[in-house]
Design a protein that fits this description.
By secondary structure, chain A is an all-alpha fold. Chain A has 20 helices and 4 strands. A two-stranded antiparallel ribbon of chain C has the order 1-2. In chain C, strands 3-4 form a two-stranded antiparallel ribbon. A two-stranded antiparallel ribbon of chain C has the order 5-6. Classes of the chains: A mainly alpha, B alpha+beta, C mainly alpha.
Chain lengths: 518, 161, 550
């Protein structure tokens, strides 16, 4: 064999050069467009990246105002990412089997390196996520972001909201402590509560959706290892996957629906553009796009005049990263202040008294205390159906993208808040002081209680009020604003009563200091 | 950011970017640092600080009928105890090759997995095992014997009865 | 954009800072780290790490030894803060049993408050040091423990017979040959577990007669049978936990089993105590309990005044002194009786669980004081508690002279339905031979009163039932009820009473009354009524009998 020549064409030299160039080529292969310094490279930076391409390449300046979204959607996403990372870490040590589960949480708390901190962050991030998702929903509602063309995304958002609550609930079971055990017992029986109706109608023998739901949830007739593994599966696999999938759709639809909602006169109301921004379109585009005669359509910017946009990279990304880190800061800060709770080992013989669910379910628990079916399934279904219908009932266009649709809207919301708080507090006070039908007529059939209870009465009052608003202001938007506001207020009142004013046996107490000692 | 740009550019000109964006860069690097730091913290988690395996020190009561040279293997432990006139000693019966449990015989120990053989004092006589079987520390606790699987002693060390 | 950059910068800095704090807490801030840092072993500085004892069979992971380093199995020569001291020498190795098996507390925890269990949501705080021996009750149920008097009898025999000269028990005695070759006899502190030769007495005696050795000549002599029995009872209880045995003897002296069950034996009137020592303090009401809310304080206060702690409690105020309360607290705390894997079941537990061995000694005196004394009093004269009607005096002459052994035996076996006296002829009750011993002991309590000879047939009375009915209504129904259903006085239409008592029992009781109770003899007149004649009494008895016919 010939010794290779050292020279210009030596394969060895080429090899050396290739080796030296490998890092640069790897970088080029990963990021094809180089530094994002020009409009073109910034654009490719966004659409050349699988994670970023859910964003549009340019972002309207209105969307970047802090008051437009308050960053709540990103905060929710950030909280989800935090729970995702910490949750995966917790899975290193968590053992989904009764008692072993409890011991493993104790181990995470006491001996796993950083375990307690990670678990605290997981718990706080979950709470932050629930708060953020509620606020985000309220933001979307009050800026009328559900309106055409965003109706579908509003529905996706509702799905995300429900899944978020589901994740929280299933997470509560996993430590297998008293709180977990009784929360899941109550939850499973809420699932079974359609029997309240089927029993009353003598249908259960033939048609038993309640029993089916409970069996599906628990995998058994008691809360035990079967239930735990099912909730574990829901918590770490089914619900996160569903959430991630819906999130992808949610984000993608934001782009496809023309970005963040903004008022028609947004451009005019923005302060004059600083020099750093640069318009894509110098005049109003009028063209439709057509690609090889395959895809046809109208870009969302048609007829919108010169776009007041800035490149997403870096304008939008700074905002997103800022909110991400702020959310992280909040979660970590809370985790240092307060530990995630862990009560005694689950004891099927001794119920917690009071057995309180996590705070965001206490409004529901307050209604469940009136009627399991109506409080746990009926009214929540009505609310969800109502929320889902709003975009299809309110087809107005005025005030889209404005908080409360402008000044008049804010006045209306304030009035609705008075009604929402007032009605719920009045009904609660009445029930606490005088009781309800069962206390007056002990032999009243269950069906009557199911249909006529403080929860349904409150729902009815709220519904009627909204219908009245539609008539009074001759506006479906007014009805929607009122409806959402009163239900939000009712939720807040019930949650506060459930959290602070309910003691053992779900009796009303002004303060936990007045609770009887066993 | 201090950028002086001229009149509105034509649409194909790039948006001018500042050469030095101290604020943006420091913000990004701080974020990267914080995330890196948190990642380091998270990397600590999978390394267990305590093991869930049984304690390595355990006590054994030897059967009275144990003959000299006969091995006694306490249930659930990979240790063989021997008693003879000089005292009691314990030899680990985990093969030094790949961790199979070796079988004590009258001639020594044999490993079922890859054919290693050990003499009665644990020395390798055959097969792939790289090291002799370890002698473990035994201490007399009045009637019972405490074996410490974590402490090795030189071969030949025996604890007086 | 600058606003967002600022937000990003300061949030990130904040995150960095908080992570730094958390890292500090995680890596430097732990209590055990400080303790281990301040300690030295014989080989120098300790390596700083979490230490633990794991026993998967008992499901323990005790990290107590992270701070109590010197108590870790095999650790010797640890010097440092007081917590690192070595454990005192006990029978059970920490390597096998860990710490929480005996002491309670939260073994998985690594911080003092959590580990000692004095935190919310941990149901099993550590046993207070003075009740440490209650921890034995996690696994053991010491058997055949006599009452206090029985225990004292054995102890005093041991003392009187000079056994301490050669033998050591719980650190006392064995001093006959100080410095010269150690004790003459073996240490008997654990002889109840280890056992001893059945022929010890003959062997001792033989040696005493054959040897010229002074200790054997002087300190040992013939022992009579009663003393030998007392000694053997005493030695059987020497299991290394003398305080706990004393506590149990105290329990066996107050008749608690009359109302409470322990290990399946006892009455039903009160709660089963078999696992009362594991009661979760979080489930108990500490409103009226002074001191820290731990179970021992609750129990002590509860013994002082049951009704003051548990509203509606039926338990009488026993009027106990502090020493008795202390012992009872210790015993109830020891009722922990955990489910154990087979290999860890001690012999005494197996004997109690599978072979029906008694935890109390089965001589008549102990059974009576462990079960009957609660109501009938330690002397059998009927216990008296504030706010509760006096219980029947069954050791008096009036009762014992007319109550035959069969009658008493039947009453114990069948109980008195409707009254507090339960039936003892069931699986939670007594064996026939045990009942026989109780009856014999009762006779002994009453000064060996025998039943007066009686030649009459058990159902010999032939009076006029109609007259009897009138007399009953006039004289008896005030206390015993219109139909003999009972009121202030006991029910007489009780099936068990009517079937077990003979006529003479009724006639004599009505005629002579029952001293110490409201029942006066009707043969004597009283300020409010005339005396009844023997015939009238027989008429009443005939009337009472007529209920039994139905």
């Amino acid at each position: 064999m010939k010794t290779p020549m050292i020279g210009e064409h030596s394969a060895l030299l080429v090899f050396r050069d290739n080796l030296l160039a490998a890092p640069r080529r790897l970088r080029d292969a990963m990021f094809r467009s180089g530094k994002p310094t020009t409009d073109r490279t910034r654009s490719t930076f966004v659409f050349g990246n699988v994670f970023l391409h859910l964003h549009s390449v340019r972002t309207h300046r209105w969307s970047l105002r802090w008051t437009t979204t308050a960053g709540l959607g990103i905060a929710t996403t950030a909280a989800f990412l935090i729970t995702l990372v910490t949750g995966v870490l917790l899975m290193f040590y968590y053992k989904p089997y009764p008692e072993a589960a409890y011991d493993s949480i104790k181990d995470i708390h006491f001996v796993v390196p950083t375990g307690r901190f990670i678990r605290n962050i997981h718990r706080w991030a979950a709470n932050v996520m629930v708060v953020a998702v509620i606020l985000h929903m309220a933001r979307a509602f009050y800026t009328a972001a559900y309106r055409r063309p965003r109706e579908f995304n509003w529905l996706i958002g509702m799905g995300l909201f429900v899944i978020t609550l589901g994740l929280s609930f299933t997470g509560y079971l996993l430590p297998w402590d008293q709180l977990a055990y009784w929360a899941i017992t109550i939850g499973a029986n809420i699932a079974q509560s359609p029997r309240e109706v089927t029993d009353a109608l003598n249908l259960t023998e033939w048609f038993d959706p309640g029993g089916f739901q409970k069996l599906l949830l628990l995998g058994s007739d008691v809360v035990g290892d079967e239930a735990l593994i099912r909730f574990y599966l829901l918590h770490v696999m089914i619900l996160p996957l569903a959430l991630a999938a819906l999130m992808a759709v949610h984000f993608w639809r934001i782009r496809k629906d023309g970005g963040m909602v903004r008022p028609v006169d947004a451009d005019a109301r923005l302060e004059p553009r600083k020099e750093e921004t640069y318009p894509v379109f110098t005049e109003a585009p009028a063209k439709t796009y057509q690609l090889a005669a395959v895809v046809k359509g109208k870009t969302p910017v048609v007829g919108r005049g010169p776009e007041n946009t800035v490149p997403s990279m870096p304008h939008l990304f700074y905002a997103e990263l800022a909110v991400l880190m702020l959310t992280t800061l909040i979660c970590i800060g809370l985790s240092l202040i307060s530990d995630a709770p862990l009560k005694e080992l689950a004891n099927p013989a001794v119920p917690e008294n009071p057995a309180k669910a996590p705070w965001y379910f206490l409004g529901l628990q307050e209604m469940v205390a009136f009627s399991a079916f109506m409080g746990g399934i009926g009214i929540p279904s009505i609310i969800i159906i109502g929320l889902g219908l709003i975009p299809f009932l309110d087809r107005e266009e005025a005030g889209t993208g404005e908080w409360f649709g402008g000044k008049g809207g804010w006045r209306l919301v304030k009035q609705a808040m008075a009604v929402g708080f007032g009605a719920s507090i009045l009904i609660e006070a009445f029930v606490i002081r005088f009781g309800w039908i069962r206390e007056w007529f002990p032999h009243v059939p269950q069906l009557v209680i199911t249909l006529i209870n403080p929860g349904t009465m409150l729902t009815l009052v709220y519904g009627l009020y909204s219908v009245w608003l539609v008539r009074r202001y001759n506006s479906t938007r007014a009805g929607a604003l009122g409806l959402f506001t009163v239900f939000l207020c009712g939720f807040i009142v019930l949650t506060i009563i459930g959290t602070y004013f309910r003691g053992p046996n779900w009796v009303f107490y002004w303060s936990p200091a007045d609770w009887p000692k066993h | 950011m201090t950028v002086k740009a001229g009149k509105p550019q034509s649409r194909l000109d790039p948006e001018p970017m500042p050469r030095r964006d101290f604020l943006g860069l420091s913000a990004l690097w701080t974020m990267a640092g914080a995330l890196l730091f948190s990642a380091l913290g998270m990397l600590k988690l999978p390394k267990a600080a305590v093991l869930s395996s049984p304690s390595k020190k355990f006590s054994v009561t030897l059967p009275d009928a144990l003959a000299a040279g006969e091995a006694y293997v306490p249930p659930g432990r990979a240790v063989a105890l021997f008693r003879d006139g000089e005292g009691v000693h314990a030899i680990s019966i985990t093969c030094t090759h790949l961790g199979c449990v070796v079988k004590p015989t009258t001639e020594g120990f044999e490993c079922p997995c890859h054919g290693s053989r050990f003499a009665v004092d644990g020395e390798v006589t055959r097969g792939p095992a790289p090291k002799a079987l370890a002698w473990l520390k035994v201490s007399n606790k009045g009637g019972s014997w405490v074996v410490d699987e974590e402490t090795k002693v030189p071969p030949g060390t025996k604890e007086k009865a | 954009m600058n606003k967002n950059k600022h937000l990003l910068l300061w949030s990130s800095l904040g995150v960095f800072l908080l992570l730094f704090v958390a890292a500090g807490q995680e890596n430097f801030g732990k209590e055990w780290r400080g303790i281990q840092k301040a300690s030295r072993s014989s080989e120098g500085a300790l390596d700083l790490r979490l230490r633990q004892i794991v026993n998967p069979t008992l499901n323990i992971s005790d990290r107590c030894v992270s701070c109590h380093v010197g108590m870790a199995p095999g650790e010797t020569g640890i010097t440092g803060p007081a917590v690192t001291a070595a454990h005192k020498n006990v029978v059970h190795q920490t390597s096998d049993y860990g710490c929480t098996t005996c002491h309670g507390g939260q073994g998985r925890a690594t911080e003092k408050a959590d580990a000692h269990g004095t935190v919310h949501f941990w149901p099993q705080p550590m046993l207070p040091m003075k009740y440490s021996y209650a921890g034995c009750g996690t696994c053991h149920s010491s058997l055949n423990v006599p009452n206090l008097a029985g225990l004292e009898k054995g102890r005093s025999a041991f003392e009187r017979l000079d056994c301490y000269a050669c033998h050591r028990v719980e650190g006392r005695g064995g001093t006959i040959r100080p410095g010269g070759g150690g004790m003459e006899g073996p240490d008997l502190s654990h002889v109840g577990v280890k056992g001893y030769a059945a022929n010890w007495y003959d062997a001792h005696l033989q040696r005493h007669e054959q040897t010229a050795d002074l200790p054997w000549k002087n300190s040992f002599g013939a022992i009579n049978e009663a003393d030998r029995a007392a000694l053997s009872d005493y030695l059987a209880t020497r299991v290394g936990a003398s305080k706990l045995i004393e506590a149990k003897a105290q329990f066996n002296s107050l008749g608690c089993l009359g109302c409470h069950k322990v290990s399946g034996v006892g009455g039903d009137a009160g709660p089963d105590l078999s696992r009362a020592g594991e009661k979760d303090p979080g489930q108990a009401n500490f409103t009226h309990v002074p001191g820290t809310p731990i179970l021992s304080n609750w129990l002590g206060e509860h013994f002082r005044s049951p009704l003051g702690i548990v509203p509606g409690s039926q338990m009488p105020m026993m009027g106990l002194n502090e020493k008795q309360i202390d012992l009872l607290t210790m015993y109830v705390l020891s009722l922990r009786r955990r489910e154990l894997p087979g290999a860890y079941l001690p012999k005494d537990r197996i004997n109690a669980m599978r072979f029906g061995a008694r935890e109390f000694a089965t001589d008549g005196a102990t059974i009576f004081s462990a079960i009957c004394a609660g109501c009938h009093g330690a002397d059998g004269r009927g216990a008296r508690y504030p706010g509760i009607p006096p219980f029947p005096n069954i050791a008096g002459q009036d009762f014992l002279q007319v109550a035959s052994d069969e009658f008493i035996t039947e009453t114990i076996k069948q109980g008195r339905p409707g009254r507090k006296m339960p039936s003892w002829m069931n699986e939670a009750g007594l064996k026939p031979e045990e009942i026989a011993r109780v009856v014999a002991y009762l006779r002994q309590l009453g000064g060996n009163t025998a039943v007066a000879a009686d030649t009459n047939p058990p159902r010999g009375v032939k009076g006029n039932a109609a007259d009897g009915a009138k007399l009953f209504a006039a004289n008896c129904s005030g206390c015993h009820g219109q139909k003999g259903e009972g009121g202030e006085g006991p029910a007489l239409n009780n099936k068990v009473l009517l079937s077990t008592a003979n006529d003479r029992f009724f006639v004599e009781t009505i005629g002579k009354g029952r001293r110490g109770t409201a029942m006066k003899g009707f043969l004597e007149p009283s300020p409010v009524r005339r005396a009844l004649t023997q015939a009238e009494i027989e008429a009443v008895v005939t009337y009472i009998r007529s209920w039994g016919a139905k």
